[in-house]
UniProtKB/TrEMBL annotation:
This is Uncharacterized protein. It comes from the Bacteria. It comes from Lentilactobacillus raoultii.
Length: 61
């Protein structure tokens, strides 16, 4: 079981991935299951990056 990916490790790697690559995979992957995974990852990491921007001290709402 040592070869399994831990969620925290996946999140660390995901923070470094370009969102455009995830979006491209989400839109163009022919495998519907992979499409849903890429879409979920894209949405999650986009949300996290937006949260960082919104939480900045100088962000104006």
């Amino acid at each position: 079981m040592a070869d399994r990916i831990k969620p925290d490790d996946l999140l660390k790697v995901g923070e470094k991935i370009e969102l455009t690559k995830l979006l491209d995979k989400s839109l163009h992957d022919p495998d519907s299951e992979k499409h849903r995974v890429y879409d979920a990852l894209y949405t999650y990491f986009l949300d996290k990056r937006q949260d960082k921007i919104i939480n900045r001290k100088n962000f104006i709402r």
